[in-house]
Amino acid sequence: MFTIDAHLDLSMNALEWNRDLTLPVSEINAREKGLNDKPDRSNAVVSLPALREGTIGLVVATQIARYVAPGNSLPGWHSPEQAWAQTQGQLAWYQAMVEKGEMAQIRNLDELDAHLALWENGEDNAGKPVGFILSLEGADSIVSVDYLEKAYESGLRALGPAHYGPGRYAHGTDASAPLSKEGKALIRKMDELGIILDATHLCDLAFWEALEIYNGPVWASHNNCRALVDHNRQFSDEMIKALIDRGAVIGAAMDAWMLSPGWERGKSTPQERGVTLETVLDHMDHICQIAGNANHIGIGSDLDGAFGTEQCPADLKTITDLNTIPDLLRKRGFSEVDIEKVMQKNWLKFLRKAWG
User: Fold this and answer.
1) Quick one: angle between helices 346-355 and 109-119, nearest 10?
2) If you write DSSP's letter for every residue of 90-132 in order, what string do you get?
3) Is 261 exposed, middle or buried (0-12, 13-18, 19+ CB in 10 A)?
4) pTM of this structure
5) Can you tell me whether residue 318 is helix, strand or coil?
6) Which sequence spans correspond to the domains of the chain?
7) Which end of the chain is more exposed for a tag (fewer CB within 10 A), N or C?
8) CB 339 within 8 A of CB 284
9) Where are any strands of DSSP class E within 221-273?
10) What architecture is domain 3-355?
11) What does the pLDDT look like over 181-220, one tens digit per residue?
């Protein structure tokens, strides 16, 4: 079944992890054998061939580069200009993949329809480009609000103002503050340009302010439920209700610490904790219960988002295994119509409304 994954850090993996994503996952992991500079070396699950094998023909693919002020211990860049340059290198990688025929950038409805027609032509997926919608995770690299127009011209179509910690425009996970003056201006400029607001990672204060200021389309590319795993990274039921009221789609994330209460990084294992794709579906189902329907859920896996098999569902060996989700949903009593909504149609309906 044609599948959309609304959050993958492909360019980060290509440039910072130095992974050739045109190779099979097995070859990427073999190349990393013996390396220990990252916690997930030899545990990758994402590559372009694996996406094609799983019929995951469209993804929301990120640029990401954090600015860190003195005293901020998070990894990042020491000036907004350096962060901008990093995102431009990531953009250059996506453009190289387009030129090679490995990927296709999707910026509007015409390009979306053409790409869907290609993937639905009944031919083997092996030679088809993986479509991507460009998103920016964390706005720190936007040197000034004027730079947002440059980003839009390059195809940026979604933006999450925050990531982890304090941000130049908005605070994110494990931080708390209202939107800055610049953050409010950024949100208004996004509204003017028609850039989708990604509510993922926004701290609670910034979340509510952003929804009040922004009038355009809102989604949450990769987020789970605070009621099931109590952490500020997750959405409370009240936040989920607000997103549903705005017509948002929430993509289920597959990082095990977001799926298992009390997860200890480097110590807990998915096998020990019983974290599987069923656990992911528990979060999807919770959102369905709040909404009263399956119209607001999808996949936003975040796989290989600085973690690999050591911290993802135990029954997922590569991203291809997302194609087992329809059967798992059937076992839960989801109708075929609702299964298609989860795998693709909720995201497509959202995009048609946002870009129409």
Assistant:
1) 150
2) HHHHHHHHHHHTSEEE--SHHHHHHHHHHHTSSS-GGGPPEEE
3) exposed
4) 0.98
5) coil
6) 3-355
7) C
8) no
9) 250-252
10) Alpha-Beta Barrel (3.20)
11) 999 999 999 999 999 999 999 999 999 999 999 999 999 9
